[in-house]
Amino acid sequence: MTTTDRNEPTAEHPFGPELGPLVDEVRRFASVVGEKAQEASAETLLSLAGLADRLREKQPEVYDHLAAAGTGLAAAGAELLAAYRAAVAGHEHRWTAGEPTRTERVDLDDAAEGPSAKQ
């Protein structure tokens, strides 16, 4: 077996046998990090749900105001998204229609000589 044979990727070690253990370790690390992130997000959601329940029980008026504010924020976000879509829709139509765009020639060399005709 020559040195080049040992370095060539195989089906078992797509990055070469020397990097195989490192790749396996990175895969295990990524798997563990992914599992921990899922556990943490589940725990966070559970603790937030518990907080909301306690707030509803102990401070029902505050909870009602926060719930109304959350609903209002969600509606405002939906309106902002609708406004964005409406603004972008016209531009997207022009971009995809293939119509030529209006261009303006800008000569940067003459700008240093004095004010332009627009000024």
Q: How does this structure look, described?
A:
With 119 residues, the chain is mostly helical. It has a domain at 42-83. The protein is 72% helix and 0% strand. Helix 2 (20-58) packs across helix 3 (60-97). The longest helix has 39 residues, at 20-58. The protein is flat and about 65 Å long. Mean pLDDT is 76; it is low at 1-5.
Largest sheet: none
Low-confidence stretches: 1-5
- Provide the helix percentage: over 70%
SSE class: mainly alpha
Rounded radius of gyration (Å): 30 Å
* Proportion of residues in β-strands: under 5%
The number of helical elements comes to 4
- Gross morphology is flat
User: What string gives the helices and strands in order?
Assistant: HHHH
Please count the beta strands (DSSP E, at least 2 residues each). Answer: 0
The termini sit apart by 77 Å
Chain-averaged pLDDT: 76
List the helices and strands and how they pair.
Elements: H1 3-7, H2 20-58, H3 60-97, H4 108-111
Helix pairs in contact: 2-3
Short description:
By secondary structure, this protein is mainly α. It contains four helices and no strands. 72% of the residues lie in helices and 0% in strands.
Short descriptors:
single chain; 119 residues; mainly alpha; 72% helix; flat; disordered N terminus
